[in-house]
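Input for the complex:
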Amino acid sequence: MILHTMIQILALLWHQIVAVFAEFRRDWAEALRFYEEAYRALREMIATSTRLPPVQRLVEIRAVAEQLFFKISTLLLHGGKVEEAIAWFNRHFNSYKHLVGLDEVSFLHWDWLSRQFLVFAELLETSSAAIPNTLSSHFGTPESSLTEWEIQPAYYYQLAANYLREKRYCLDNLLSTGDSEFSRTSGKVPESVMPSVFIGQSARLVEQGDMIEVLPLSDAEYVQYALSEAQRFQDSYEIIALFRKACESFTNLKAPRLASLCSNRMAKEYFFTEDFTDAKKLFDTVSSLYRQEGWVTLLWESLGYLQECSIRLDSAKDFIEYSLEMASLPIFANGDQEIPDSKREYGPAGLPSQSRREALQSEVLSLVRGEEIVSRTDRGCSIAVTKEQPVRIDVDIISPLRMVLLVSVAFHDQSVKPGSPVMITLSLVSQLPCSIEVDELEIEFNQPKCNFIIINAVEEISAARSNGDNQDVRIETAPSIVLPTNKWLRLTYDVKSDQSGKLECLSVTARIGKSFKICCQAESPASMEDLPFWKFEGMVQTFPTKDPVLSFSGQKVIQVEEPDPEVDLILNASSPALVGESFVVPLTVIPRGHEVYSGELKINLVDARGGGLLMSPRETDPFSSGNHHVELISISRMGGDDESRIHSDKIKKIQQSFGVVSVPDLRVGDKWSCKLEIKWHKPKSVMLYASLGYSPNSAEAARVNVHRSLQIEGKIPISITHTFMMPFRREPLLLSKVKSLPGADQNVYLPLNETSILIVTARNSSEVPLRVKSMMIQSNSNKNETPYSIQHVGGVSADDSLLVPGGEFKGVFSVRPKIDSPNLELGSVCLNWNRDLTLSDSEDSGVMTEQKLPAVIVEQSPLVVSLEFPPHAILGIPFLFYIKVSNQTNLLQEIKYSLGDTQSFVFCGPHDNAGFILPKMEYVMSYKLVPLCSGSQQLPQATITSLRYSAALNPSVTATTIFVYPSEPNFFVADNEKETILAKLNL
Amino acid sequence: MIASVAVVGHQNNPLYLQSFTNANDALKLHHIVHCSLDVIDERVNNPKRSVSTLNESYLGLLYPTESYKVYGYLSNTKAKFLVVTTDLDVKDADIRSFFRRFHAAYVDAVSNPFHVPEKKIVSRTFAQRVSGIVKAFAAGTNG
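Predicted:
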């Protein structure tokens, strides 16, 4: 037997030595093979006995196995054989997991197992680059025995922490009982123990004189030594660190449930080390996931710990919250039989069961009624609820405590008149396992005057009043306020509101005992969410109200209507508004049945076609102030005298489209008027909204509102057009105009230093008669010397001339450009006008309508052709017809001209001819014509062609028409008028 | 031996969870089933899944713990079926056939007109049927 063992040891040694040499040679395959052989040889030695005592022998075998496995897995992982390494690890684990040894030293086994996982995790982490990416596609298929997490170090860290916990548990058990065989036999820890030269062995050093001798240890001594060593280490910190590492990795791998499992274990470890603050924080995080996914048992465990943490942290509020949540969880199991170790498994809460829930509820109720609760884990710790430190729990619509108390509030109507009562039904339900009796319910509204209290009839009203400082609150009594499990308690009362607007039930606060309140946010039955956890239970659905319609459509909000107004608000607009003018809208307030106190008038202008705002942010218009198309300018008292003008301090606010004005106090029979001045910058249809808010009596009471609206059209009053003309019978040659394609552009060409005529026509396009006060052309340039001269030379008189709808007003101006410019700004036409019948008595200064004239192209004309003949002719009497061509250039110009035949005239002179014009000279072609017919006659067609510019001129028909009298007419014209006429003709 | 079976709804809430062990390890099994949902999420949302596994309900081995193995199955309605076994060497075909029968039992249970979808399955018939399937599986693997 001994021989056999010796052979096995030698074989093991030989394999190991060969493997080490192979490693030196960098022959990895050979090294791996021999390490594997050595590992197998070690396995065979487990059952054999050696000179070492059994405990130390097992320690030695484990140490050797660890070392061999470390070598094997390192070689495999560095060779990229991840799957094989993991398979080897599993084999290693399965081989040794049951090799626990004696109970007294089982902690050594768990410690060793934990180390195996830790070492493998670290190895895997360092060689993570060697893990191929393609591995993940095979998970879950028969080709791969691996799963997702097995290639993650986090998985092994987590297991390492688990086994370290196991070690700590065993060690604690051992130390707490303290009756092990070894501790009885020898209670003394041996001194000077150190690792032996052999792997996994320990020895004791004994000094004998100058000699130091190494002596073997007995198993009892070794156990004492190991125990004392194990006690020195704070395992909890390492457990927490390992779980934290695993938790972070799992969070990064998007595995929230595994991460929360690690957090859970970490929290338990904190709890064990009595770090209750950190434990509570972690348990809270974990619980939220379990709540979200509805895992009752898992939540129960965490809440049990949280409950205990709250006691240890002396927080009665938290304790009550966690206890109530636990008591209201849907757990129906009968857990009367207490299973051993359930505390270790389930934590302080124990096994989840119906009876535990009931116990928890009664515990909380006794706490809130003044009893003390003692911690389950430390009897010295306790909490209590006292009058000095009352507890109030708030339950909102996302709180898990909705299961404890759910309040649904429904008004029976959708709107109510002020002062009229309306029915309200409060429905309360609780999922606590036993009925719960409430002492008082306090119902809170957004209008505090409507608040009321419902008192359990058993409770004394005086007692209820004495503890409340709000003496004015209405108090109702109910025979009993008891909430049975999952059964609606319905209470219906009247509510009366004097204040118009929204009346909303905000919350219902239940008072249990003297110092505990639970405040629930009121919910509308129509929009009530399902209860967490209970929504997955197959319970019979019940409605909060008896009336099913109310259950589906009931709301916790009601609209309190306004009292009917008894004040007239009159808005008037006699005609459409005109763009540019200050349009006045009279507004009158006449109290009929109500008096008006602290009245406030709001004026709002809104685009009648929708769109709300009367502005266009993109448009930039010089005529508008800001970007508003319609603007509220002022609000003033009717009459216009300064005293009655509303003081500026009374006008609270006037914006472009909105104004607020205070209205003085008015009694019945009084009358108050004002006028709103509104200015249109663009033709737009506008809704004018006026709303008067007032109090019918002087005391601050409900306000009443009167609303009126009026649609007002804004129209363009005057459309302005213009035309440019040349002087009569004078035609300058404009080269650009000749070259430009007909119709290609609409530019206006004017000759330099020649007088042109501008006719401006203003047309009344509105439906009201207007008066034109003046028309002029205003230059844009500020300089004194304008690059052109412009003069008003005629047209209809502009002194208050009446312009009926559709009527036209013409102004005639002479324009003489002085500079050659391709883009000459001529300024704007300014037309001052007002309505024929103004609404106000005051003298109106008129409205200025301005329209910009387009830019003109001014150029020097090389040739100017003018036709000269008398204004009229007499039948048979010859007259002279001159065609004068003036050369304004410094060049010699060659022209051709012709005069066609006509039936009405005979003439002498050349039909066709050509000639040269010297620079700055004039060429005159003269013909003598004799008219043959009377009446308006067309002169012979003249054509003048400039050869240099290839331009021909055919004078227009109007320019070559002459009136032929049959005989000499007799005119009687005064001399001065004659001169005037002649002057105008010879422009 | 099967330690536990579970049906989990599409909000990852437990619809049915039954343990078949006598030991006090219900909480541990709950934790195992809950953590296995992470693997289902990972496997279903993995873009690298091979075509052959893409349309298959059977998800294979999800999560090996030291003493248990968890297998998963996903129905078309996103109901997740999970089995926790203590046998560390189970034939793939046996598990597949188990899931098929488990799924059929579930379909029959939710076809009950009184059953509200996404609520826990409280049918006793379903529980008995699942127990029967579990026993048959144990007999099949032992045999």
